Amino acid sequence: MRARGNRSVFQDLDQPQQVGLLLGTGWGRYAPAPFSAGYRTFLMNKPVIKPRTALELGIMRGFPPPPEKRPDLTNWDLAPFNRWSFLNIRQLFPTVDVETDYNNIQPLPSELQDLSSITFRDHAGEKKSIAEFLDDSYTDGFLVLHRGRIVSEKYFNNMQPDTPHLSQSVAKSLVGSLAGILQQQGLVDPEAPLVSYVPELKRCGYKNAKLKHALNMTSGVRFVEDYNTPGSDMTRIDIASGWRPVPENEAQPTIRDIILTLPRIRKHGKRFEYKSVETDVVAWALERAANKSLAELMSELIWKKIGAEQHAFFTVDRATTALADGGFNATLRDYARFGLMMQNGGKVGSKQVVPASWVESCASGDRSVYGRPYTDTCPDGAYSNFWWDNNIETGDFMARGVFGQMIYVNRSAELTIVKLSTWPDYRIINFTRDSLAAFDAVKQQLA
Length: 447
Fold this sequence. Notes:
This protein is about 30% helix and about 15% strand. The chain is α+β, with helices and mostly antiparallel strands. β4 and β5 form a beta hairpin.
């Protein structure tokens, strides 16, 4: 899950009217000034007006669209432009396909139910319906699978069933699952040093790290996960991946150029600290071990195996390296197929895709290295193989990405829920809490 550190998109605004326009709600002059006494309460509580779609906001409308309605490298992932950008990534960045097999599409039978009137208590203790929750939390797509059948499938913000949506850090969980397959094939070993796959890593902080340290984000390597902060490691990766403009008079590095500059600042394996770059490091190791690109591996070993309906794709840097930590794009139903496979212990029908033991390890991370601020969202959780464990005791786990991307998997309830969103900020913790509360209400209703 990509984080922006201490900087918020709202710091770029100095007028209440701008806040309303940024959020795409039409709040305008009724919004309190940023960082005033009532500002955060205003932001987190139910909007006065339903969030507006990219179409309603006029983003990329016209021939040509007016300059102020066009996303660019400085703002494409920020509100309100992300309402359009996350559904149109190929119009912004170079990509590489993750191919499916159109002769082997896995059907998703439907048994639709109306879940809109299900209610739950939100973060403020107020009663809210699923319909209100979906409207208020900038939803683009929402799909519920119960016992292998679609019971709810809804689209917002002009998204369609064949629209690919940016996954953000949900991509990490796909890469983590791929690592489990390569382990079963004997190509990688979580206990092996990373340099045994990528010798170049001896030049940086990963010199003595094992593959498992990166998979579980417990390496001692420094990576400052602050967005849009000049010089931060996250900003450097964004520039390298083509997601941010290259500073004037500087040469554009590649993703792997940045990896090789990162130092170690503590012992490996001591504590979990979220670092997006760990996924890019693991992807490098997987490519070297299998002698195939990440896109090829994902296609052959996961995407075709789950019977995906559409090709997926990654954004790539100038060296054609896929952005493993957040550049994956797919349709709502295909994210659901992936989640369903994990729900079924790594199986699609009678065929094992991801080893069952690996799926189990994804849901049972080490709580001893997991602490604040991560426990603020999942107090009984952990992190393992690039998956977030919601609750170690119940075994439900999830893939999560900033701006509201989630694949929630509950094996005991035979439940998979996918929510794709375009939140107005990278992290809104109360939106995450409300999502989990809403998912729990759906689970109880379907039980």
